[in-house]
Design a protein that fits this description.
It is a single chain. The protein contains 18 helices and two strands. The protein is an all-alpha fold. It folds into three domains: about 55 residues, no CATH class; about 200 residues, no CATH class; about 80 residues, Alpha-Beta Plaits, CATH 3.30.70.20. A two-stranded antiparallel sheet has the order 1-2. Helix 1 packs parallel to helix 6. The protein is elongated, with a radius of gyration of 30 Å. It starts with a helix and ends in a 5-residue tail after the last helix. The N terminus and C terminus are likely disordered.
């Protein structure tokens, strides 16, 4: 009897200790799951509040900034039907159409006051005169709507800021935290402090609208467009990546909804196929242009996202649209840039011949695909594998360089080459064989 107890007692102790162990492990797992849920909720609330506070601060500070700068709505004056009669002098034409002498002098290039007595018919047919007056009035309104002190200051800031980023980021890896701070700095300088205008999108959108409605071309805008495209040509989409006040805000919001390992904090961040996004962008610009030329309407103006930096001129429809756009920016990288921006489309065409751009050194590349997975869009997959004829927009965000374990991704003038035959298949087999990729 005692002998039997010697064996039974240890067995009871063993089974009892195992049941305690299993129960403890289960309890530990439950606690761990609970802690994970709490951490997820905290991250959700923190990210949501951060985005809301960011947008609220931008709107509030931009309202103050626009008041200090005295920003005006950029809108062409409504042209009334001009009264033109036979044997009418320029002075008579000005009187019946409420056009002061200085305006008449500018329209008809008059040299002296006696020129006001010239016959109107000397300057062309009635239709030609209407067109000429419309162009001159539109150009005068464009000129009056600009802040000619702020514009050169903003271009100087662009030049300094983009040059610094180019020189520093080209040689050094950009960390997630530093990228966010640089995007935030761009938003504050080029958006909040220096306002909505000028901006890259306006150089294309407003040029189409002005020409479509009046046949006029505003030379300063063409100069600005040329400068922006030169920047795109020199460094791949650099003005969009680090200088555009609307683009950097979308980018910043997207990054705020990411961990340091490029994983979404709230919901899921998606990458739409470029064939879809670019088709939408082309169709949108086509529809915009047709409506401008046929009906003289600017369908972008009411929903212009740049107006977040000019909130007093952002109506209810525009406010709802911009709010939705910024919300979408948490889950889709730069939605306005990819789907609607006219300059984004033009810049994408020019970036095909950019001097400095992202390229891959296949001699050191281990095909780990980390760059493709971390890239906020589908462009890195196209650059790495070179399996598509058309390469999507690359915003030179340097995320690919940040995650590359071998430093095989460069932002330089080196030509993009094709990967060696079987490069990815061979590397995948090496990875399956136990190599740490």
């Amino acid at each position: 009897m005692n002998f039997r107890c010697v064996y039974i007692t240890p067995l009871f102790i063993i089974f009892r200790s195992k049941s305690i162990s299993y129960g403890s492990m289960r309890h530990f797992k439950l606690n761990k799951n609970g802690e994970t849920r709490i951490m997820n909720i905290r991250a959700f609330l923190k990210t949501s509040m951060l985005v809301v506070l960011l947008v609220a601060a931008i709107i509030g500070l931009s309202l103050i900034s626009s008041i200090l700068w005295g920003d005006k709505p950029e809108q062409l004056p409504e042209m009334k039907e001009l009264i033109i009669k036979d044997k009418m002098s320029i002075a008579q034409f000005g009187k019946v159409n409420n056009l002061p002498n200085p305006v008449l002098k500018n329209i008809f290039n008059l040299k002296s006051k006696p020129d006001l007595k010239k016959q109107l018919k000397e300057f062309g047919t009635p239709d030609h005169i209407r067109s000429m007056v419309g162009k001159k009035m539109a150009l005068a309104a464009e000129h009056a709507s600009k802040n000619w002190l702020k514009i050169p200051v903003k271009f100087a800031c662009w030049f300094i800021f983009l040059t610094v980023i180019f020189m520093v980021f080209r040689k050094h890896t950009v960390s997630t935290a530093l990228r966010k701070w640089m995007l935030f700095t761009a938003v504050i300088i080029f958006g909040v402090a220096l306002g909505a205008d000028p901006g890259p999108m306006g150089t294309v959108k407003d040029a189409v609208y002005l020409y479509g409605t009046t046949g006029a071309i505003f030379p300063p805008r063409m100069i600005a467009l040329t400068v922006f495209l030169v920047i795109v040509f020199v460094a791949n989409k650099y003005i969009c990546a680090w200088g555009c006040q609307a683009g950097t805000l979308q980018d910043l919001i997207f990054r705020l909804n990411q961990t340091d390992k490029q994983r979404a904090i709230i919901g899921k961040q998606v990458k739409l196929p470029f064939v879809i996004t670019n088709t939408v962008r082309v169709v949108f610009l086509f529809i915009f242009t047709i409506i401008v030329f046929m009906w003289g309407l600017d369908i972008i103006n009411p929903i212009d996202p740049f107006k977040i930096y000019k909130p007093a001129h952002l109506g209810i429809i525009g406010g709802i649209f911009v709010a939705g756009l910024l919300l979408l920016s948490m889950f889709f990288y730069r939605p306005w840039c990819h789907l609607f921006c006219p300059f984004g489309l033009v810049g994408w065409l020019v970036e095909k011949i950019s001097l400095v751009k992202i390229s891959v050194d296949y001699e050191t590349c281990i095909a780990c695909m980390k760059c493709v997975n971390a890239c906020p869009s589908t462009v890195m997959g196209a650059i790495l594998k070179r399996d598509k004829k058309i390469i999507p927009d690359c915003f030179s965000c340097y995320t690919c360089r940040e995650v590359c374990p071998t430093g095989s991704i460069h932002f330089s003038t080196r030509k993009r080459t094709m990967p060696p035959a079987g490069h990815f298949e061979k590397r995948n087999k090496m990875g399956e064989g136990g190599h740490n990729l």
